[in-house]
Backbone:
């Protein structure tokens, strides 16, 4: 059986015609799945039973089950661990902000980028997540909270631009006027800095926000944290940033995890100021969550404020992102890792 959440509207049309049904049914089915967010075929009230039976014979609708939910007592952030059809697990984070609910979805099971501060990469890359599984994370969270999410960030486990085609398909489907119809302006894609894909994305001129994980102002610092920097160093990355801004006229966000005594010095801030001066960018300083598996500690608050003011003096737009869900291991990949670790421990005990 296949997942019907993977099918674009023209693919459903083809399927319907192949089944000997009227073409207009495709639009109705697409609306039920993506606009109304149903999870059982029998909920399609205006579709004849005979067609529902045919769909049920060949497809399933719900492509994941909730395995575990952790909720932060501090700020209400929820981490949801989903079990996919092949028993891989993937995590999604629901965050509550003043402007509404936002979710952070995963785009790969695991990751092979090797960022040193990230738990997602510890077991390497298992596989890409499909567009239907990205949509599934959104729809299942909506169902859980009985509300429609209106901001999505592709910043969970995985490097979204390494899964380029499925991410683009997800954007097309979630933005479809007969479907969920979410504005691309409400979607942020985060990358560790894959230069060819940043340029490819620029050429598509989408209205999304692109966020780049920088985490260091010099190659020396960034090399310590992100192996990708050896392939795509900062100078080359910033050329791709210029290309992206020129093509899209969209402001780029730089994510900068503040790590004590590693990348948070005043001199690093001054180098960063020089690099970004005059560019259409925004810098997000993020006090990191402590990850059990590594030796990094969050910067002191005083140091973060100093770093911020150095950037601001150069006219750079900077915010300090609120740390959410620190009591539930909300850092990328931690829930899935802990879950897998528990599974391993259980298996070892047997
Ligand atoms: S930070 Fe993102 S790109 Fe880097 S290892 Fe983690 S999931 Fe992969």
Residues:
């Amino acid at each position: 059986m296949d997942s019907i959440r993977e099918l674009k509207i023209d693919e459903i049309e083809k399927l319907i015609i192949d089944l000997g049904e009227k073409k207009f049914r495709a639009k109705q089915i697409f609306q039920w799945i993506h606009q109304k967010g149903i999870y059982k075929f029998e909920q399609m009230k205006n579709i004849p039973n005979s067609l529902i039976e045919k769909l049920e014979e060949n497809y399933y609708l719900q492509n994941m089950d909730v395995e575990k939910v952790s909720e932060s007592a501090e700020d209400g952030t929820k981490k949801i661990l989903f079990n996919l059809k092949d028993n891989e697990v993937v995590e999604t984070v629901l965050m509550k902000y003043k402007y509404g609910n936002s979710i952070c979805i995963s785009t790969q099971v695991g990751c092979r980028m090797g960022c040193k501060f990230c738990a997602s990469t510890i077991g390497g890359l298992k596989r890409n997540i499909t567009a239907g599984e990205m949509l599934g994370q959104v729809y299942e969270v909506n169902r859980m909270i009985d509300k429609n999410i209106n901001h999505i960030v592709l910043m969970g486990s995985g490097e979204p631009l390494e899964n380029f085609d499925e991410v683009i398909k997800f954007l097309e489907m979630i933005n479809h006027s007969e479907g969920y119809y979410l504005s691309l302006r409400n979607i942020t894609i985060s990358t560790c800095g894959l230069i060819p894909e940043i340029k490819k994305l620029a050429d598509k001129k989408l209205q999304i926000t692109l966020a780049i994980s920088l985490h260091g102002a010099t190659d020396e610092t960034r090399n310590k944290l992100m192996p990708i920097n050896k392939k795509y160093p900062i100078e080359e990355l910033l050329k791709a940033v210029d290309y992206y801004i020129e093509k899209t006229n969209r402001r780029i966000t730089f994510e900068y995890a503040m790590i004590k005594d590693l990348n948070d010095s005043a001199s690093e801030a001054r180098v960063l100021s020089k690099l970004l001066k005059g560019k259409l960018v925004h810098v997000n300083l993020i006090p990191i969550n402590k990850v059990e598996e590594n030796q990094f500690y969050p910067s002191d608050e005083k140091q973060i404020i100093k770093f911020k003011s150095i950037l601001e003096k150069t006219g750079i737009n900077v915010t300090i992102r609120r740390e959410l869900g620190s009591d539930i291991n909300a850092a990328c990949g931690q829930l899935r890792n802990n879950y897998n670790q528990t599974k391993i421990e259980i298996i070892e005990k047997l």
Summary: Residues 41 and 52 are 6 Å apart (CA to CA). Residues 339-350 have pLDDT under 50 and may be disordered. The chain has twelve helices and 14 strands.
